[in-house]
Amino acid sequence: KLAGCTLFITGASRGIGKAIALKAAKDGANIVIAAKTAEPHHTLPGTIYTAAEEIEAAGGKALPCIVNVREEQQIINAVEKAVKTFGGIDILVNNASAISLTGTLETATKKVNLMMDVNVRGTYLTSKACLPHLRKSKNPHILNLSPPMNLNPMWFKNHCAYTISKYGMSMCVLGMAEEFRGEVAVNALWPKTAIHTAAMDMLGGAGIEKQCRKTDILADAAYCILTKPKSFTGNFIIDEVLLREEGVKDFDVYAIAPGHPLIPDFFLDVETDTTAMKQERYGAAPEDKKLSRSQQEGADGAKVKTESAAAKPSGPVAETFRVIQGAMTEEYVRSTQGVFQFELSGDGGGTWYIDLKTKGGSAGFGKPPVTADVVMSMSSADFVKMFTGKLKPTLAFMSGKLRIKGNMALAIKLEKMLSQFSSKL
Fold first, then answer.
1. Looking at the predicted structure, is the pLDDT value of residue 339 above 50?
2. Closest CA to 364 of 382, 347, 394, 344
3. CA-CA distance, 133 to 167, in Å (whole number)?
C-alpha cells in the first residue's frame, strides 16, 4: 500500500520512528530519516546511517539527513533534499520528542527549552515545511506521536513542562486537521501501554522491559492510519483500540514478556485498577476510604483512633520499616549509595527514611541522618503496597500515585532493591 510513497520521519534513527520506517520499507516506501545522530552515541543505539542500512535491507529506499528539529534551516534543507531525491513528500511522521519527568522547581530552564523546542516548535516547523509538498500528494498524511488531551490535573502535577510540550503536539493536530481538512489528513497516535525503547530503559532502569510492549504495535497502528484515505483526519488514536477495531485479537505478540503486567502510558485515565484510580482522583486512596468508614462513630472517636494508630509501632508502615531495617546488609549499602526520604500521607504517615549510604545503613521514622538524595511522596497505603510487591514504583509514578524529587537514577535503583525486600515482607 505504501510502495513508492515518501515518508519524512523525525527521530527515525531508533525506537518508534525506526519501527514505523521499517514497516513502510517492507512495502517498498522511500524513507527520509530526519534525525540528529550521525555519530554513534555512547549509550543510545543506532545512527541515521545504520537505520538507512536496515531500511534498505527491508526493501525500502533510505535518505539519511542530519536534522536537529530545533534548527529550522536543517528541517528546510532536509525537506528540499527529500523532494529533489524522491520527487515529493506523501507522509510526515512527527516522532522526535524530548522528555524530563520533573516538577516545576526541579526542571532546569534548558530542559524546558529543549522540550518546547523539540516537541512543540519542532513539530510545528517540520509540518510547516512539509505541508506545501504534502498538498500535492494523492493521499497525504501527518501523524504526530502525541496523546489525547486529558485535562485531569494528575497529568500536570508531576511534570508540568513535559505535559505542556506533548499537548502542544496534540494541539497541532487539532488546528492543522481543521485548517487542511480535505487536503491533508492530520492525526495523533499514542500507545495504551509503555513501549520498550532506549528512553524507557533510561527512565525505568533494568527489568522495566518486562512491563512494556515492543515498538511493533505502534508501527502496525501507524501503518493502519497512514493507509486510510485523507478524509480520516483530526483523530487521537490509541494503538490497541485501533488494532482491535482492525480485527487484531492476539496482543501477546507485542509483549516483551507475554503475560507480565503492563505499565499504562501517560495521559490515559483507564488504568489497570480503574476503581482505585477513580477513588483516588476524588481525594483518597481506597484504603483511606475504608479507614474513614470504620471511623464514622463521630469526630472524637475518629480522632482517638487515628492518634492511637499513628502511635502504634506495629502499624503497616512501621512494620515495613522494621523489616527493611532487619534486612539491610553492607552489600545493599555498597551497591545503592543513596538516602531515600518518604513523605507519607494517611494512616501511619509522616516523614520516614532509608539510609543506604552511611556505613551499615539504617531505616526508621523521622528525617534521615544525612541529606536525602531522593524524596518520595505518596499515601501510606500505596507505600505499603509498593514495598510488598503489589504496586510497581514505575507504575505508581506514571499513574500519579508517587511523586519523586531529586536523583532519578537512584529512584530507579529502588525498584531493584524492592524486589529483594518484598520477599521478606
1. yes
2. 344
3. 26
162 is annotated as an active-site residue: yes
Beta carbons within 8 Å of 54's beta carbon, 6+ residues apart: 18, 22
- In the chain, CATH 3.30.1050.10 sits at 316-422
Cα distances from 79 to residues 34, 176, 262, 352, 396, in angstroms, run 9, 19, 38, 55, 42
Three-class HEC string of 92-140: EEECCCCCCCCCCCCCCHHHHHHHHHHHHHHHHHHHHHHHHHHCCCCCC
Dist. CA 100–CA 110, nearest whole Å: 11
Q: Which helix (H) or strand (E) holds 186?
A: strand 185-190
Q: How far is CA 220 from CA 30, 182, 216, 246, 357, in A?
A: 17, 25, 6, 10, 46
Looking at the chain, the domain(s) classified CATH 3.40.50.720 span 6-254
Catalytic residue among 124, 162, 254, 353: 162
Q: What does the block give as the cell for 317?
A: 508502615
3 state SS for 260-328: CCCCECCCCCCCCCHHHHHHHHCCCCHHHHHHHHHCCCCHHHHHHHHHHHHHCCCCHHHHHHHHHHHHC
Nearest to 37 by CA among 72, 66, 69, 10: 66
Among 98-112, 149-163, 178-192, 276-290, the minimum mean pLDDT is found in 276-290
Q: State the average pLDDT over residues 74-102.
A: 97
* Dist CA 199 CA 98 (whole Å): 9
pLDDT at position 67 is 97
Spatial distance between the Cα atoms of 351 and 365, rounded to a whole number of angstroms: 6
User: pLDDT-derived band of residue 324, with 50, 70 and 90 as boundaries?
Assistant: confident
pLDDT category at 393 given cuts 50, 70, 90 is confident
Q: What pLDDT digit, counting tens, does each position of 241-268 carry?
A: 999 999 999 999 999 999 888 888 889 8
For 33-74, what is each residue's pLDDT tens digit? 999 988 887 777 789 999 999 999 999 999 999 999 999 999
Domain 316-422 superfamily per CATH? SCP2 sterol-binding domain (3.30.1050.10)
In the CATH scheme, what is the code of domain 6-254?
3.40.50.720
